[in-house]
Every structure is written in C-alpha cells, then in structure tokens.
Amino acid sequence: MRIEEYWEDIVVYYVSFIVNNGKQNKIDRLIAFRVNEESSFFDVENYEEVVRERILKKFGRVEEILNVDLWDYGLLEKKEDFNNKSV
Q: How many domains, in total, are found in the chain?
C-alpha cells in the first residue's frame, strides 16, 4: 500500500484580515488547502495572490487582508468510501 492511497498533500497558510459585520473584527486563521485543488498553492511567488482571492471569495464582508504567510506543508487523511467496503 502506498501513502498516497490514504493521505493527500495540503499546504497551510496563516491569514489575518478585517471583516465588517456592523463593527470591525480582526480574524486570524490557519487555512489549509488541498494541493490537488489548485497547483498554484505550491507556487511560492504566486501563493499570496491566490490565497487573497480565495479569502475574498469565501469570507463575507472582508475589508482588508492584513497578512498572508506560508505556514507549513502537511498531510490530510483521505475519507474512506464506506459504501464500497464489505462489513
């Protein structure tokens, strides 16, 4: 069995941004992306732009993105397909 059968590569970013939901709130998060999802997440020169676009798309009322830093690389366990397993 190969590791790729059970795990997939991820890349993790530390992101800090300000949202306005009636009042301004600063949000700090670690956000993980599957590498297969978009190959540009591994492109060191381009990652900040790609992550900024994703934050603006996925989070509502973002006023300003303060910081995007590459945090680390990791592995995410793949979900098993229980429908095809015999019990």
A: 1
Burial class (CB in 10 A: 0-12, 13-18, 19+), 8: middle
Tell me, yes or no, whether 86 lies in a domain. Answer: no
The structure's pTM equals 0.74
Gap between the Cα atoms of 59 and 84, Å rounded: 35
Residue 47 lies in a domain: yes
Six-digit token string for 50 = 């790609």
Query: What's the whole-number mean pLDDT along residues 3-12?
Result: 86
**What gap in Å lies between CA 20 and CA 6, rounded to an integer?**
40
Model confidence over 10-61: pLDDT tens digits? 889 999 999 998 899 999 999 998 886 555 556 667 788 888 999 999 988 9
Contact yes or no for 29/35 (Cβ under 8 A) = no
Domain of residue 61: give its range.
3-78
